[in-house]
Design a protein that fits this description.
Among the domains are: 133 residues, no CATH class; 77 residues, no CATH class. The protein has 17 helices and eight strands. The strands form four sheets. It has a two-stranded antiparallel sheet with strand order 1-2. The N terminus and C terminus are likely disordered.
């Protein structure tokens, strides 16, 4: 019988249990390595034409059937894999840990001549903002008319039936048209109380315990717009003209030629900035901020000061209006609807940023 002093000691990994965040990071790193290998192999397989011998109409069809995935997913893997053949630096970064989300975005605009510069932008930009940053980068380097033609050629509307019987779709529209559509939908969301809140849940015979989500309200607003015309009201689309270009409030760039096209029919208000580029202050003793004050606050902060969202922004007094009895720009903070309500529920006011 082996003495206890001679028994094998447990490994350190067995003594120290990983936390859930550590396990997520570890699994994510393994998945990203596998993604790089998989996408590289798909592109290599396409080049061999072996999929024809196997009876598939395309390489993407064979991959979709073999791995039991959507055909659109296989096509996107193949597109990215083919692009990486001519983008060695982005491919190496992908292999070293750059996320697939960023690689997929980069491969839509990168070339062998600009991939290093775009890669530097990708490393220092969150994945959710990379598309906007690249759009601004690209627009700064091409003629505005070329941008307009490129966006016009890329317009699309697609849909498919999901397994639950719902119709799922997506659209791609030039900046002005796309913003006009989304602003109209959000204006409808802000204007109307959801039907299920007014009438209650007929099956349960009582009001719902919570409001529908923003996505559900937008779906209802889109249907209202399509079936009833949305009513008669004016939707405001704010466009910022600064020294670094033309953008919407959320930073989406707009080609100069598009601004020139709509300017003759637009209602223009000037927002004056001081010598340091800060919007001039405005004040009032009213409870709610004026349109001019709202524009000054948005020009200064551009997003929710708590979560960074640019959707359904409201203007929060800090300190509360009940204390200050005034509405001045320096004491207003843009907060999205969710953060604003959460802050109002909290008796302890969050210190001003």
């Amino acid at each position: 019988m082996v003495g206890s002093e001679l028994r094998a000691q447990p490994r350190l990994a067995e003594l120290v249990e990983e936390t859930i965040p550590e396990r997520i990071l570890s699994a994510g790193a393994s998945w990203m390595t596998a993604q790089y290998l998989l996408i590289s192999l798909v592109a290599e397989f396409d080049a061999t034409s072996e999929w024809q011998v196997l009876g598939a109409p395309t390489c993407a069809d064979w991959v979709a059937d073999a791995l039991d995935i959507e055909l659109c997913t296989a096509r996107e893997w193949l597109r990215v894999g083919k692009a990486l053949r001519n983008l060695p630096h982005i491919g190496a970064a992908f292999d070293s840990g750059l996320s697939y989300s960023k690689v997929r975005t980069l491969t839509r605009v990168a070339t062998p001549d600009n991939e290093r510069e775009l890669l530097e932008l990708a490393w220092c930009t969150p994945a959710g903002r990379l598309g906007t940053v690249l759009a601004k980068w690209l627009m700064d380097r091409e003629a505005s008319e070329e941008t307009r033609r490129r966006q016009r050629a890329a317009r699309s509307l697609t849909w498919q039936t999901d397994p639950d019987g719902m119709i799922f779709g997506s659209f791609r529209l030039p900046a002005i048209e796309g913003k006009s559509l989304t602003s109209t939908i959000d204006a409808l969301v802000s204007r109307f109380v959801p039907d299920q809140v007014l009438s209650g849940d007929a099956s349960a015979g009582a009001l719902p315990s919570r409001w529908p989500s923003i996505a559900q309200q937008r779906a209802d607003a889109l249907l209202t717009l399509l079936t009833r015309g949305g009513g008669k009201f004016v939707t405001e689309v704010v466009i910022n003209l600064r020294g670094d270009g033309v953008t919407f409030d959320d930073g989406t760039p707009i080609p100069w030629c598009e601004l020139e096209r709509i300017l003759p029919e637009a209602f223009v208000r000037a927002l004056i900035h001081d010598a340091e580029g800060r919007p001039i202050n405005a004040s009032a003793r009213r409870r709610f901020p004026s349109k001019r004050q709202q524009r000054v606050v948005m020009a200064r902060d551009r997003a929710c000061v708590d979560c960074g969202s640019t959707e359904f922004l409201e203007y929060d007094h800090d300190p509360p209006f009940e204390q200050s009895r005034r509405t001045v720009v320096d004491e207003l903070r843009p907060r999205c609807r969710t953060c604003h309500r959460a802050r109002q529920r909290d008796d302890t006011r969050v210190p001003r940023r």
